[in-house]
Each structure stands twice: as structure tokens, then as C-alpha cells.
Amino acid sequence: MSNGFLLLTEGMRHAARRLASMAKHRLRIRVMGGRILPLAQVATDLGDADRDMCAVVVAVIFDQPQRPELRFVIGVERSALRPLTVAIAGEDLASDPRMATSVLQELGNIGASAMSNHLATQLGCTVRISAPDVVEDRWGAVASAVLGSFRDPADEMATLSTEFTLDGRRFAGAAILMADRNVEFSNSLSSSILGV
Q1: Is residue 189 within 8 Å of 183, Cβ to Cβ?
Q2: Separation of CA 53 from chain center
Q3: Is residue 19 part of a domain?
Q4: pLDDT tens digits along 39-63
């Protein structure tokens, strides 16, 4: 398993634990599978590319001379947003559309913070995260938009297929870890970030 998968799994594990606690253990997030996907295959191979998703994007930035960047993206199908918001914020607050955005931002913050803490410990450098950006679109369009945010993206990205289970109802989810060309997922992630 590559380091890209390990980072994604670390972020998802922390997000799952924290959200389960916030939802009084009515929510479970499970990783169904993952892969390293060459960018040339994104349009044809990305699972659920046409599914309407609500996603949050968080940049992970390293204080290194070449300043490599990662983007952590976690999404859930649009139909899950209301039940997820009710489970975490309660029925009264869920009617406010800003609360759904807040729940997604919290999901992104938790996952990206876990990844950045892990990387900071492994690399011995400062790792910062951006404010979370919420995007609602088809999953393929979300991935394309995030990819377009890099000046020079890496040739591949790490992807996870996830499942959100809330009070017995199942919803599709996904997570992506994208990077600029300074980072290679198939090699040692710490070596490629440090330029070793």
C-alpha cells in the first residue's frame, strides 16, 4: 500500500472517529477500496464520476524550499447531506443551509489536520492546512476542478471509495489525495516531499 493510501486512510480514520462521536455513534464511515489512479485515466476510471456530491477541499502546505502542496478532498453523495447535518447538528439547526456547509468543513478540517499532524511528525517540518472549501457538483467535475488548482500536478492521485452509514442508511462517499509534481505517491512520500 502506498504512502498516499496511508495518508488518506489516516485522515479518514480520524474523521470517522470524530464524526461518529459528534453524531452520538449513529454514523460510521467505512473504506471500501482504494487505488493510485493515473491522471490520464481520471475521466474514465474514477468511480461515481457522474454522482452528485458535496465535497470539501483542504490544501496541505509544507514549509519546505520547494513548497510542495497536497489537496485532501472528501465527499459524500448529495442525498446524505441533510441526514448527516441532522445527526451532527440536530434537527433545529439542520434547517439553516449554512449548517450543512459547516458540517462538511468540519469533516475536511478533521481529516486534513490528522494528515498534516502525521506528516509534520514524520518529516519534522511545519505543515499547514488551508481553510476548507465546500464544492457541490458531480464527482468527476470536483476532481477536475481540484486538479486545475495545481500549476503542475503530479501524474497520479490516491483515491478511496467510502461508505457513510447513518442510522442504517448507506450513502456513497469518496476521498482523494492530489499533489503537485514535487510529490510522487508511488515512491516514499516523505522522500519526495523533502526532495531526497
Answers
A1: yes
A2: 13
A3: yes
A4: 777 655 555 567 788 888 988 888 7
Q: What is the mean pLDDT of the chain?
A: 78
Domain range for 59 is 3-40+51-194
Q: What percent of the chain has pLDDT over 90?
A: 3
Q: CATH code at 92? A: 3.40.1550.10
Whether 46 maps to a domain, the answer reads no
Of 145, 161, 155, which Cα lies nearest the Cα of 179? 155
pTM given for the model? 0.81
The three-state (H, E, C) secondary structure of the chain, written as one string: CCHHHHHHHHHHHHHHHHHHHHCCCCEEEEEEEEEEEEHHHHHHHCCCCCCEEEEEEEEEEECCCCCCEEEEEEEEEHHHHHHHHHHHHCHHHHCCHHHHHHHHHHHHHHHHHHHHHHHHHHHCCCEEECCCEEEEEEHHHHHHHHHCCCCCECCEEEEEEEEEEECCEEEEEEEEEEEECCCCCCCCHHHHHHCC
The count of structural domains within the chain is 1
Judged by average pLDDT, the poorest of 12-26, 69-83, 152-166, 167-181 is 12-26
